[in-house]
Amino acid sequence: MARLAELIQTLETAYPPRLAESWDSVGLVCGDPGEDVRRVLFAVDVTEEVVEEAVSWGAQALVAHHPLLLRGVDSVAADRPKGALIHRLVRVGCALFTAHTNADSADPGVSDALAAALGLTVIGPIDPKPVPAVDKWSIQVPGGHAEAVLAALFAAGAGGSGAYEEVAWRVAGTGQFRPRGGANPAIGTVGELTRVSEDRIEVVAAPRDRGAILAALRAAHPYEEPAYHVTERAQLPGNLGLGRVGILAEPLTLREFTARAAAALPETTWGVRSAGDPGRVLRRVAVCGGAGDSLLDTVTRLGVDAYLTADLRHHPVDEHLRRSGPALIDAAHWATEFPWCAQAADVVRVGLPELETRVSRVRTDPWTVGCGG
User: Fold this and answer.
1) 107: annotated binding-site residue?
2) Taking the complete model, does pTM exceed 0.90, yes or no?
3) What percent of the chain is predicted at pLDDT more than 90?
4) Is 337 annotated as a binding residue?
5) CA–CA dist 129, 169 (Å, integer)
6) Is 6 annotated as belonging to a binding site?
7) I need a surface site. Which of 7, 152, 177, 180 has the fewest CB within 10 A?
8) 110-129+240-337: CATH homologous superfamily?
């Protein structure tokens, strides 16, 4: 058994809230972080059927991809559809947590799960987010004082790197200085050249913490004027961001890859359809779980052979193909995001093995009837 707060921490480590788009709503929707959790249900959507599945199974937490309360609301009254779901969850003690665009841009995230289902080896995001700016602090410390200075720097926020903390590097060397008149040296004498065995320590920190780190450095360092240098790393593209570009183990035609997608993704009335020459040979394929037509121009510039996403519209597809862009594969929105549920369940299973997890068995794709062919 674990606390809801531990579940939240595990999920937010995998899907950091800072990756969410500014318009999005992610995180805990309802529930007490201090309550115990034994069972966690994962789903793409929060519907009445999914909530009833969570209640019937005895889940203490429901983790969803799509936010139930995305836009501002002024009431969650029980006589309103969304309010009724919130009341149902609260009454039985089942928390609701959402990971949306933060899960889209995480590494691994929604599109990684989609790529894996389609047999693609991911080589990077379609639209990478810049790696956040970070400072590197290089500081000279006399022998025997490095641990105290490092402790102060860590307490001020330095030394974090991904899933690690208290990260530092050090090397021994010799420092020298000649105090001038008016100085009050902790070591050495005014007017005389002094050589000291020192450690050079290096730590990284967020630029927003510069003031706190400098104050901590000055307070903990034995020297009147500590020697330090701060550099800021360039913002380079990283592994975070929307969509993924992948490589097929063996080339497939567009017709063959479309059939593979239809077999790999959960069945829906919408199905899987493609636009382009059915015999076109595909090697590099881009994918984006959910609605990805905003990335059409980007995948064209990347030179991929095909792009699979959801919710593609008639005119953008027609114009895209007229510009000789990559072939397009359109699948149901829910189907392209469903593989993420198993990924998120695995995150919790590894991080909190005492919890019981389940992927919802409810198909929340809204389309129910398909005709023609």
Assistant:
1) no
2) no
3) 81
4) yes
5) 27
6) no
7) 180
8) NIF3 (NGG1p interacting factor 3)-like (3.40.1390.30)
